[in-house]
Amino acid sequence: MRDEFKRQGTSKAEFDVPTMRFNEEPFENAYEICEELGSGQFAVVRKVIRRATGVQYAAKFIRKRRYQSSRRGVIRSDIEREVDILRSVGGSENVIELIDVYETPTDVILILELVSGGELFDHVCAKECLGESEAAGFVRQILLGIKHLHDRNIVHLDIKPENVMLKRKGEFKVKLIDFGLSRRILPGAIVKDMIGTPEFVAPEVVNYEPLSTATDMWALGVVTYIL
Q: Which of 38, 158, 185, 197 is deepest in the core (most CB within 10 A)?
């Protein structure tokens, strides 16, 4: 996974005031935890199986920041923002679905639909060169996912091949994943942040200017060039 950058700095209020309640029942009573699917700086994704039904899901274990002075873990407000956004963007064939949210003393666990086809990045690397029609098909689906977000005033802010997953092996249906950096930007709002993956960030990010839906479109242009 390529490194992401984000402006640091949070208030005490952001850190220690929960505004959402999550499922606090013992997670392992409900789900069998299986192999690791991926990891980031403060999160690990594992395949899990719902014990009651046998249905497979992906569980994203997000490590909570326990102390305001710590640099380890994710602050509460950022976790809650990701959950809020995921709950807002369900119902699209091209965006990952959030199923449930659990909380333990150390982690918040997002239960997501399982997409098992691998990253678009790995698919491109394996094939070395995509045909025009295949590349266009992927771009169209990514655009549909982005439109679904933008229609709801959500800007992803980390569009890249690693955050586009093939739904199944050998199937060319894709879904946008990883909303950890995403923002809800209402009309007229001014939001500035140093955020994203350096190779894909738009000029307004580097220049610390207002972010917008156009920020995602720049990143999609870079993805299209790669394809």
A: 158
